């Protein structure tokens, strides 16, 4: 048996089509949603991701606002840039591309984003709102995973879900999303302190791996027919000396699982689509 692939790229394209219609409706009311990005330094990977976000904006009709600072930018310069975006009425939401250079205080930077303009949904106020079940921009990767599973009719209600990884951007908020009444899944949040990881993943209907450990999830750790979601994305150097990205799911898992969200082509494109969704929703609220 080979698993059915849940295509994040195609699903993200569908979502972008829907967003294009919503953006047109906003334009008829004289409102153009705007997404801002703040890039500090010239890391090629981060530049590529930021360029991708602006390409996505152009595709759906969202206005792009780009702020670029040198790698040696001071904390003050960054703070000033965020204050400008917070005050800019054309900017409905923005993100600070991570990781930031080591001399900058990432937590301070994230906290300086106006929570109402937090397109990544990572501000402590918005994570707190998620805990309390209040309306808030949702973190893009967890939201993208839930949306992809929903659109591919993977039942969540009553499902046993093992989430591997307790990071603040994926694992922890994903546990919160999946246990909302609207999803009603039962979540086991596994991490480096988990004693018998395989026992938890084998007991799960859905296994979501966001550990950043290439090949961590092997075939013996998955019950036949389970749904597996690969969130891992680690840059490795192949035997040919070339760099490439690899996920957390070992290739043999595809022979055991019923459905797999692969990397590439799964969670990454959905994360990008959810960023656009957060900005359009913000603009629709006026
Ligand atoms: N402020 C943020 N910084 C970072 C985030 C984020 O969500 N917000 N995530 C990553 C980088 N990132 C977006 O910024 C991102 C990474 C990967 C993908 C993606 O689509 N990946 C492809 C595979 C790799 C590739 O082709 O480049 C895939 O999964 O198919 C999208 C966005 C860190 N920083």
Notable features of this structure?
6-stranded parallel β-sheet, hydrolase, Aminoacid_DH-like_N_sf, 286 residues, methylenetetrahydrofolate dehydrogenase (NADP+) activity, binds the ligand Nc1nc2c(c(=O)[nH]1)N[C@@H](CN(C=O)c1ccc(C(=O)N[C@@H](CCC(=O)O)C(=O)O)cc1)CN2, Rossmann fold, globular, alpha/beta, 9 helices, 2 domains, methionine biosynthesis
Radius of gyration from the alpha-carbon trace, in angstroms: 19 Å
Ranges with pLDDT <50 over ≥5 residues?
A: none
Structural class: alpha/beta
> Which CATH class of the largest domain applies here?
Alpha Beta
- β-strand amount: 15-25%
Helix content: 25-40%
The main sheet orders its strands as 1-11-8-7-5-6
CATH topology of the largest domain: Rossmann fold
The biggest sheet, with number of strands, parallel, antiparallel or mixed sense and barrel status, is: 6 strands, parallel
Number of strands: 11
CATH superfamily of the largest domain: NAD(P)-binding Rossmann-like Domain
Overview of this protein structure:
The protein is an alpha/beta fold and 286 residues long. The chain folds into two domains: 30-114, Rossmann fold (3-Layer(aba) Sandwich); 140-267, 3-Layer(aba) Sandwich (Rossmann fold), CATH 3.40.50.720. The protein has nine helices and eleven strands. A six-stranded parallel sheet has the order 1-11-8-7-5-6. It has a three-stranded parallel sheet with strand order 3-2-4, with helices on both faces. A two-stranded antiparallel sheet has the order 9-10. Helix 7 (171-178) links the parallel strand 5 and strand 6. Helix 1 (8-28) packs parallel to helix 9 (267-285), helix 6 (140-151) crosses helix 7 and helix 6 crosses helix 9 (267-285). It starts with a strand and ends with a helix. The model has no long low-confidence stretch (mean pLDDT 97). Bound molecules: the ligand Nc1nc2c(c(=O)[nH]1)N[C@@H](CN(C=O)c1ccc(C(=O)N[C@@H](CCC(=O)O)C(=O)O)cc1)CN2. Residues 49, 95-98, 120, 140, 233, 245, 263-265, 267-269, 271-272 line the site of the ligand Nc1nc2c(c(=O)[nH]1)N[C@@H](CN(C=O)c1ccc(C(=O)N[C@@H](CCC(=O)O)C(=O)O)cc1)CN2.
